[in-house]
Specification:
alpha+beta; 2,3-Dihydroxybiphenyl 1,2-Dioxygenase, domain 1; 5 helices; 16 strands
Length: 301
């Protein structure tokens, strides 16, 4: 979170397991936020995205070019800097460098996702009761807030954020802002039950057709993410969360990313009444997705 550097949390390597094409599909009910400025995140909402990378300078340049992010650097230790990425002057995401010990354990560049909670301590304790593993017990991040890192029973890592002076992302809907998250897991039911019990999420099936087995995640009245079918999860791949960022032009953003050295796992693809999606890894290897919502009754472009 602001002015801290977890960067990695024991997350296993994803390099050998690129996302399965078409595995991550936001629901038809998804609609982008209409109010771009965020003043408070509801408990259970995704509130922050944090890049852990091998080259902060290169990452800063890459994301500035594809998302227009500006950045502010905050020293957090000897030769360590925490970058806050901004959109329209408001905090949108962050970045830091993987430490040598993390690299020696095979932790690759990746994006961390944070969920807003009322109490990091209580939620961490609850995660343990539900069969989760605590990777980082609750601790204060200066006066920004309190956080913890937990792993769900299927192996995916999620960060908990109890805000104080830093709420998390301060803007939505604009190009380059966090808009969605998918959980890739080999056990849809077990993971879904864990998060439902932990955050109060409603896990909703699209319909009873087995071919439509993408489960929607609803926090309160907001659709915030999903869990693709277990059949889309590559055997042997670690469970993981995938962050989505809004793109005003999915094709142009993907083309620019590829030109800058990104790997496109899923080229820009239309999903009827949903939007246009591309899944990629930045030049250092951190995977993420971009999404342009469809206009009502039509696919995006």
């Amino acid at each position: 979170m602001a002015q801290t550097s977890l960067c990695a949390t024991g997350q296993p390597s994803l390099r050998a397991f690129p996302p399965t094409p078409l595995a991550s599909i936001p629901p038809r009910e998804y609609a982008p936020p209409t109010m771009p400025n965020i003043e408070k995140h509801a408990p259970g909402a995704f509130c922050w995205a944090e890049l852990a990378t091998t080259d902060q300078t290169a990452a800063k340049d890459f994301y500035a070019k594809i998302f227009g992010w500006s950045s502010q650097d905050f020293p957090i230790g000897p030769n360590e800097v925490y970058m806050i990425f901004q959109v329209e002057g408001r905090d949108a995401a962050a970045g830091c460098t993987l430490r040598p010990d993390q690299l020696s354990h095979g932790v690759p560049p990746h994006w961390n996702l944070y969920v807003a909670v009322e109490s990091a301590d209580a939620t961490t304790a609850r995660a343990t009761q539900l069969g989760g593993t605590v990777l980082a017990p609750p601790f204060d991040v200066f006066d920004s807030g309190r956080m913890a890192v937990v792993q769900d029973p299927t192996g995916a890592t999620i960060c908990l954020w109890q805000p104080n002076k830093h709420l998390g992302t301060g803007i939505a809907a604009a190009h380059g802002t966090l808009c969605w998250a998918d959980l890739s897991t080999p056990d849809q039911a077990h993971a879904g039950q864990f998060y439902s019990d932990l955050f109060g999420w409603k896990i909703m099936k699209e319909d009873e057709d087995p071919a439509h087995n993408y489960w929607h995640i609803k926090n309160g009245e907001e659709f915030i993410g999903g869990i693709p079918p277990a059949s889309h999860h590559q055997p042997g791949a670690p469970a993981h969360w995938m962050a989505y960022f809004t793109a005003s032009d999915c094709d142009a953003t993907a083309a620019e990313a590829k030109k800058l050295g990104a790997t496109l796992y899923v080229p820009p693809t239309d999903f009827e009444n949903v939007g246009r999606i591309s899944v990629m890894a930045d030049p250092q290897g951190a995977a993420f997705a971009i999404f342009k919502a469809a206009t009502r009754g039509a696919a995006g472009s």
